[in-house]
Amino acid sequence: MSKTQGIEIRHARSCASRSGGRCGCTKTYQASVWSKRENKRIRKTFSTLAGAKAWRSDAYGAVRRGQMRSPVTVTLREEAEDWLRNAAAGLIRKRGGGVYKPSVLRSYETSLRLRVLPKLGAARLSEIQSVDVQDFVGEMEAQGLDPSTIRNTVMPLRAIYRRAASPTRQRVAVNPTMGIELPSVEGRRDKIVAPKTAAAMLAALPEGDRALWATALYAGLRRGELMALRIEDIDFGTGVIRVERSWDMQAGPVEPKSRAGRRTVPIAAVLREQLIAHRLRLGRSDGLVFGRTAERPFEPGSVAARARKAWAEFDQGGSHRDAARRSAYVRQPDDRGRRERQGTVHVHGALQHHGDP
Length: 357
Description:
Order of helices and strands: EEEEHHHHHEHHHEEEEEHHHEE
Radius of gyration: 29 Å
CATH architecture of the largest domain: Orthogonal Bundle
Helix content: 40-55%
Number of strands: 12
CATH class of the largest domain: Mainly Alpha
């Protein structure tokens, strides 16, 4: 075997050249560069000398810039399993330092299992490049997947590579998910509901559901926050609702989605009336505000079905059903006379997600 300028010519084991004879095999060319940072040599084999020279020239500069390191043997599938296990244990945190919610981890696991790993799971973690991820995005677009689904599919991949490229892990030199072009998500247009219309919509609901929807409408609490809201979280003395937790359909009470999720919300006068009436009907001083019991939260599907039925009977013309089908906002004056947008309510499809009651 001979070696020239960091490129080694490799012959088959049975080649006569190994014993001084004439070569009769198909030669390959192994190029290599030295990584001082890792104190090891990085190698790659090519079928042509030109390919080996081109790679070595590029690799030499990449190693010096810290953009290349020796490949790891772990696959994306193995790294993904390790990431999910450690994230569930709270050992991997979000960028802001908070733990991942169980619902987020279930969403990540589903995206990885159904779409990411079947396509890229067998590849080594260090072999996947930006072009591979971009091609994967293009394939999902060609399949007609919704832009939000594509973005949600890429999110766990980004989280995995963010950790792999971190200074404490250093499994890859470059994060291949950086700079990926994703399809834009077109948001729904919000419907502004007049206060009189909102009051009429609430009045059409069953009496036991009015305070729940009023809290979503006037205070802007999300579904999980409404499910986890406790009687002690409502302070009629100071006129505020303290949002301190959310509810996961499998894990139960959890921390809010983000630091901003932990907040204090003023109680509008119209909402105060609904909450006081609801509290009197409950007949208890602690536990869940809107639960089936003090410990068991309401069932979102049942609440949604009752609302659909009530609003369908309330307005056969469809204007209020249309208002509820999309994001409905209500403008109400607060105690200082300012007009503020108090919250949102989604009745149909959004009830199956994390946004509303």
